[in-house]
């Protein structure tokens, strides 16, 4: 996970939400090379062949019946990364990211990156407070070993 954080730190001058209004795809484009160096397969576009499919459900003879798309997946570290922009908090996309990561086969870690600021709202703080509450309440067990929230 430190490598992911370092990639964001190296690129902060180009993605900082206080200075830029980049889409999640534009942020991913700036991080792609560093994530690939860390062993991630990274989405390259919106066409079916450019997406990263992570298995969720298998059928007969091990055939893939259901998968979810991820912005990046590292099979060695069993880590999924999702980068969100405007709808990260507004549409509760971070909750969908959590649900999907919990359903994904062979995923142990989730990294969600959200803007620090979006239309004068503190998205990063909102997401961190949600996960702090989730863990502090101890009412819900998750199948993940760790969740990293990055603000950019």
Question: What does the model show?
Answer:
With 152 residues, the protein is α/β, with parallel strands linked by helices. The chain has one domain (2-151). The chain is 38% helix and 24% strand. It has 5 helices and 7 strands; from the N terminus they run ααβββββααβαβ. The protein has helices at 2-15, 24-37, 87-90, 93-103, 123-137; strands at residues 41-42, 52-58, 64-70, 72-74, 79-83, 109-114, 146-151. It has a 5-stranded mixed beta sheet with strand order 1-4-5-6-7. A two-stranded antiparallel sheet has the order 2-3. A hairpin with a 4-residue loop joins strand 4 and strand 5. Helix 1 (2-15) crosses helix 2. The protein is globular, with a radius of gyration of 15 Å. The mean pLDDT is 95.
Number of helices: 5
As residue ranges, the low-confidence spans are none
Outline: globular
* Radius of gyration using CA atoms only: 15 Å
Give the end-to-end Cα distance, rounded to a whole number of Å. 16 Å
Helix content: 25-40%
Proportion of beta-strand residues:
15-25%
Number of domains: 1
Mean pLDDT: 95
Q: Quick one: how many beta strands?
A: 7
Class by alpha and beta content: alpha/beta
Features:
alpha/beta; 5-stranded mixed beta sheet; 5 helices
Task: Describe the structure in brief.
With about 150 residues, this protein is an alpha/beta fold. It has helices at about 1-15, 25-35, 85-90, 95-105, 125-135, and strands spanning about 40, 50-60, 65-70, 70-75, 80-85, 110-115, 145-150. It has one domain.
Question: What is the topology?
Answer:
Blueprint lengths: L1 H14 L8 H14 L3 E2 L9 E7 L5 E7 L1 E3 L4 E5 L3 H4 L2 H11 L5 E6 L8 H15 L8 E6 L1
């Amino acid at each position: 996970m430190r490598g992911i954080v370092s990639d964001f730190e190296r690129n902060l001058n180009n993605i900082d939400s206080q200075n830029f209004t980049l889409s999640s795809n534009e942020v991913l484009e700036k991080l792609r090379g560093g994530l690939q160096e860390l062993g991630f397969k990274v989405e390259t576009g919106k066409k079916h062949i450019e997406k990263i499919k992570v298995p969720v459900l298998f059928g007969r003879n091990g055939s893939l019946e259901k998968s979810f798309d991820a912005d990046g997946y590292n099979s060695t570290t069993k880590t999924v990364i999702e980068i969100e922009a405007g709808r990260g908090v507004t549409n509760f996309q971070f909750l969908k990211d959590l649900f999907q990561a919990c359903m994904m086969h062979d995923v142990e870690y989730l990294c969600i990156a959200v803007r620090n600021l979006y239309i004068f709202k503190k998205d990063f703080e909102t997401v961190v407070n949600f996960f702090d509450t989730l863990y502090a309440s101890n009412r819900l067990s998750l199948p993940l070993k760790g969740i990293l929230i990055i603000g950019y």
